[in-house]
Amino acid sequence: MFFSGSDSHQDTSGVVLIPTRLVWPYGGRRVFVSGTFTRWSEPVAMSPVEGCPNVFQVICGVPPGFHQYKFYVDGEWRHDEHQPHVTGNYGIVNTLVLTREPDLVPPNLSPRTPGSRMNMDVDNEVFQRVVTVSGGAMQEVTMRSSEADVEISRHRISAILSTHTAYELLPESGKVIALDVNLPVKQAFHILYEQGIPVAPLWDSYKGQYVGVLSPLDFILILRELGNGANLTQEELETHTISAWKEGRQLLYGQVNEHGRPAEKCLVHVGAYDSLKDVAVKLLQKGVATVPVIHSPSQDGSFPQLFYLQALQLRQDATSPYGFFDGQRCQMCLRTDPLQKVIERLANPGVRRVFIVEAGSKRVEGIISLSDAFRFLLG
């Protein structure tokens, strides 16, 4: 496994090579990769990713099949323990399985140089890359996915969502707990903590229906009110009911009707046999991230049965004032910030997690979710 150079050996036997991106994310000064696809003789030099000096990558042409490989980092052979690995002839090695060859380039794409070897440069999102070897000559051509391809993908996704139901998402065995709206808030939160669940639907026995959900966000908002010296005190939490808190929250945030009373809100839910397409549309239209799956055996909707509480994370608009990161609602804090600041961040509408970043570099050091804060404060 020792080597004298860094140029990779190119096979000219006519074998189809699949471009494969290999990554070493753990830093180093000089990083190479070698494996069965280089005959363990000529490691390939890896380059730092722009903007990420600790991440090295390279794209190698690899024939279909089972392969083993290792990284040569600053004179030491290493493997990535977070990727598939086995013990082989060269110690612990990473493994790679390529099961099929890529589609060949369509005939209407003209080559740049003579010969029969092709190389298609890759754009991370919309390009495909195909490498074939024959006779040593090389030519490059680029192909972008067409609008027709995009429409076909959309149609297939729509068909899948339309033919499957919410019931199919339910686990075979899951804990389902509902809380009565007349329970004291403090007792309700302790039940959630003891049962190990972050959210529960609310049952109104007078109306005979589910009327809402109690989530860690309610807990965070109550803590903020206590910290701000608002009307609600710690003593009142012993007797303050969920129903009273929900009404007070609506008044606090201006969710009232023309008479100044809390506005009537219907629980957003889905049926067990609603299609996944209908579920997705409802989540988007209602602007919610969590829906209970409720089934009623009678036509009038009486005697509803709660199957499960299914949570889905919606994409946040990049123009939102509450932050945007990788399609998820978020805020950022430093590890030195007080807990009160984290609570304030989590209390912002739509925020479900806070990213803990390093001062100056903004490097992410951790994530605190509503559920994390809930468990910590009640633990």
TrEMBL record:
Q: Which domain of life is it from?
A: Eukaryota
Write down what this protein is called. CBS domain-containing protein
All residue ranges annotated as the CBS domain in the record? 169-232
- Family annotation (PANTHER family): AMP-ACTIVATED PROTEIN KINASE, GAMMA REGULATORY SUBUNIT, LD22662P
Indicate the secretion signal residues: none
A Gene Ontology term for the protein's cellular component: chloroplast
Query: Origin organism of this chain?
Result: Asparagus officinalis
Q: Would the keyword tRNA-binding be found if you checked this record's keyword annotation?
A: no
Cite the InterPro entries for this sequence.
AMPK1_CBM, AMPK_gamma/SDS23_families, CBS_dom, CBS_dom_sf, Ig-like_fold, Ig_E-set
State the family it belongs to. Belongs to the 5'-AMP-activated protein kinase gamma subunit family.
Q: Which SUPFAM superfamilies match?
A: CBS-domain pair, E set domains
List keywords of the entry alphabetically: CBS domain, Repeat
